[in-house]
Amino acid sequence: MPILILSPDLASQIAAGEVVERPASVVKELVENSLDADAKTVTVTIEEAGRRLIEVADDGSGIPADEMPLALERHATSKLLSADDLFRIATLGFRGEALASIASVARLTLTSRTDNDEAATRIRVEGGKAEEPEQVGAPRGTVVRVENLFYNVPARLKFLKKDVTERRRIDALLTRYALAYPDVRFKFSQNGQATLQTSGNGDRRAILATLYGIEIAKDLLEVNAVEEDLELTGFISPTSLTRSNRRDIIIFINGRWVQDISLSTALIQAYHTMLMVGRYPLAAVFLELEPASVDVNVHPTKSEVRFQDPQRMFSFVQRSVRKAILAYTPVPQMGIAPPALWTERPSGSGIDPAWGFASEANQEPGNQDSGSAQSPETLDTIPTIPLLRLVGQIGSVYIIAEGPDGLYLIDQHAAHERVLFERLMAQRQANTLSSQSLLQPVVVPLPPEQATLLNEQIGILQKFGFEVEPFGPNTFQVRAIPSLFSGSDPAAALRVLVEDFEGDETPLQEKIEERIAARVCKRMAVKGGQTLSTDEQESLLRDLESCESPRTCPHGRPTMIHLSVDMLERQFGRRGAR
């Protein structure tokens, strides 16, 4: 095949792939243009997850009429004058690619007016080809209307995710920019329904209250640190408020949302020894530094940066966050176990003095692993556990029990997860799951992206005994919960349903119910660090013995470790080493 020069249209579509990956990419580029234009109000409207329509309107400085055609050309920008400016970028946009890239893969209409123009100018572009400008009536500012995204690139359209996933990405993007620019009034609506609206009064904590609820916003700790030419501000969660993933760690650098693994790790390291394994803080922090100290020209999406002195940045963020945490030392509160744990053991199920060996009866000590405690994989091959005699609790985390062939260390949280999960699924399959109405319905606000996800799952929640209904924008009302969880926190149960989902997760339909049940049981189970009475420990052992899969929690983590008598004797030198 001979070497040919690509046509301008094809070259534009290829180049657009670096900037316009999905509808959220379009929203990001247009919102950043509005912020660079000193807009005080930014209104975003989308339909069909951005496939059919994306419209971003602002009241910024606008584009002069004679520069409108030039604004749609590739590499045309007002934010750079020379190559030296690349090393001290102070604006969000600077590449001059956004409008041209969007226009090459969609039908775009650009309308803008400055204070000096008597009328607004409008230009329509389809597939990269612009029509003649026309004069229209419009207020000061710019409106960019993007219709039928990827209409001329069907392969790109085909590989977009489901609507709920694409909407959540846009929700997450606008949520972050609303936090970073509290002086700007953001309005966002999807399919005619408002999902986000901020006042623009500069109160960042008020925006956090809108997104996460008043109680969470009130508990967040403020970070305010200055060191020479570095400044870190924002909010972080106390050690009592955590998430199961890093998704709620938001980092802005000079007003730009970035995804920097190093800074995220520094923030997490500030909580070292303070959080349980697998738990992460909630944070929205904003780092300000000299533009010459950071390179934002790393990738066309401008979401990655490089620092002149990365070690200094890491240390500054870690020290600043750690100092804020230590400045506030919350008084530990005594936890109360959910009533679902403490149920009577069915008659005839007491401990047999003769030690029923169950499925381990035929195993001889000599067949045990000669190394150390059995691995989770080995435990999974044994369907049941023997009857156990309670010894006590250690560290308010583990229960010690004696079995017919050694010692068992039981993780009380994982064990209770398993008990609740099997009861919930058994009641679900037998159609005996009952609900308990709340005396006072609980109102739960959620961030827009989580509200979008929860709306898709309300039908499944009803199958598990939850009565949840929308109660305004991004707000839900819990009217009833499963009787199994009576006495527990309905708001915590609802939030846990959405916080663990991955951004692109598309679970099989038949697995969704199990995943939801496992998440709820994880939140409702007793926690590590919670002191249990002797009766409560005994009850948990009896309930675990009756489970079909007592060796692991619903998420696959071991509930217990078995230390055989044979292994203990070798460790104490009562038998010769092998």
Automatic annotation (TrEMBL):
Residues 360-377 have a biased composition (Polar residues). The keyword DNA repair applies. GO terms for biological process: mismatch repair. GO terms for cellular component: mismatch repair complex. CDD domains: HATPase_MutL-MLH-PMS-like, MutL_Trans. Pfam families: DNA_mis_repair, HATPase_c_3, MutL_C. The keyword Nucleotide-binding does not apply. It comes from the Bacteria. Residues 208-326 form the DNA mismatch repair protein S5 domain. Residues 390-532 form the MutL C-terminal dimerisation domain. Keywords: DNA damage, DNA repair, Endonuclease, Hydrolase, Nuclease. GO terms for molecular function: ATP binding; ATP hydrolysis activity; ATP-dependent DNA damage sensor activity; endonuclease activity; mismatched DNA binding. Residues 356-377 are annotated as: Disordered. InterPro entries: DNA_mismatch_repair_CS, DNA_mismatch_repair_MutL, DNA_mismatch_S5_2-like, HATPase_C_sf, MutL/Mlh/PMS, MutL/Mlh/Pms-like, MutL_C, MutL_C_dimsub. Belongs to the DNA mismatch repair MutL/HexB family. This protein is involved in the repair of mismatches in DNA. It is required for dam-dependent methyl-directed DNA mismatch repair. May act as a 'molecular matchmaker', a protein that promotes the formation of a stable complex between two or more DNA-binding proteins in an ATP-dependent manner without itself being part of a final effector complex. This is DNA mismatch repair protein MutL.
